[in-house]
Amino acid sequence: MTTVLWLLGPSGVGKSTVGWHVYRSLDRGSYVDTDQLGLCFPPNDGDPENHLVKSSALGALWPEYKGSPLVVSGFLNTAEEARLYTDRLSGADVTLCRLRVARAELRARFLGRGWLLDLVDQALDDADALERADFADLTVDTDGRTPADIAAEIRGRWTA
User: Fold this and answer.
1) Burial class of residue 136 in the structure, from the number of CB atoms within 10 Å of its CB (0-12 exposed, 13-18 middle, 19+ buried)
2) pLDDT digit string (tens) for 81-119?
3) Which residue in 9, 43, 45, 64 could disulfide with 13, CB within 3.0 to 4.6 Å?
4) Are the beta carbons of 20 and 153 closer than 8 angstroms?
């Protein structure tokens, strides 16, 4: 069975950076950032975050990933959105890992990136919504920690 680690959380929490660190810690495996899967397609009115396009692309790539661990980073609002993706990963053992950070640090990280600054309030709202929904299998706090330290904790809690 192929194990899949899905890192989720609001924009700016460190999903891509931590995901890359986790991937690099594996003896073998693959890494996918779902943002990259939707870049070629403009969002449509019924799917503004491109979940249908991204999940279809991940499903199309899935046969190539089977057999070795897969690390995925990508925002998911709800358990239903998660199922759009995981239903396309036949035979996978998926672990959803939510990265969490305090609001002040999330704001600082987001603004520190220097782009899309008008979306910082949306990122904070997304973080609050994820805290209420709490559908992940694991939750890892990232406040004041390095990506390498966070990745090491995740590797200790996830069986690749």
Assistant:
1) buried
2) 999 999 999 999 999 999 999 999 999 999 998 888 888
3) 9
4) no
Taking alpha carbons only, the member of 115, 104, 97, 98 closest to residue 144 is 104
User: Domain range for residue 148?
Assistant: 2-157
Tell me the three state secondary structure of residue 136. coil
Tokens of 36: 């990259």
Name the strands in the sheet holding 70-73, side by side, starting at the edge strand that comes first in the sequence: 30-33, 70-73, 2-8, 92-100, 138-141
Counting the structural domains of the chain, the total is 1
**CA 25 to chain CA mean position, Å:** 17
CATH of the domain at 27: 3.40.50.300
Mean pLDDT confidence for 6-16: 95
